[in-house]
Design brief:
single chain; mainly alpha; 7 helices; elongated
Length: about 150
């Protein structure tokens, strides 16, 4: 790393933040190529794994602000990737479900993210990638609320 002070390059927090910038750019570019956004991936993944959910549940599970969930769900519904219907048990809530087209879009987005991971972590072996993922997960879990 030329022309960058050692005091920075020796700090994991600086390295993580720089890598996060690069990772976000790669993911953004990849998702743009399939007419999608990161919030779309989060929501589709949550619906696929956990089933139908209210928009509030999706916001909590995906760590997306409520107004951003509403916008993303509306975009996904407009493309036929999710169905949004009033929740029969809670009049003011919408229940969001994944459609078959949404599951197909999620698979496309998975392929994009697989390529992003390969590009981002290219200098690492499979074992190093697994170790990095495990360690980052452990650090993140330590800082999670509750």
């Amino acid at each position: 790393m030329d022309e960058i002070p050692d005091r920075l390059t020796e700090k994991p927090s600086w390295l993580i933040s720089q890598l996060a910038i690069h990772a976000r750019r790669l993911a953004f570019d990849g998702f743009t190529a399939v007419d999608a956004r990161g919030y779309h991936y989060r929501i589709l993944a949550a619906l696929h794994e956990f089933g139908a959910a209210s928009q509030a549940e999706l916001g909590r599970r995906c760590r997306v602000d409520r107004s951003d969930v509403v916008a993303a769900v509306n975009e996904l519904a407009g493309k036929g990737f999710v169905d949004k219907e009033p929740d029969q048990h809670h009049g003011r809530r919408n229940r969001v479900t994944l459609t078959p087209d949404g599951a197909q879009q999620l698979r496309r987005m998975d392929q994009v993210l697989d390529r992003v991971q390969d590009d981002l972590l290219q200098p690492l072996s499979a074992e190093d990638r697994a170790t990095l993922t495990r360690l980052l997960g452990r650090v993140l879990a330590h800082h999670e609320p509750g």
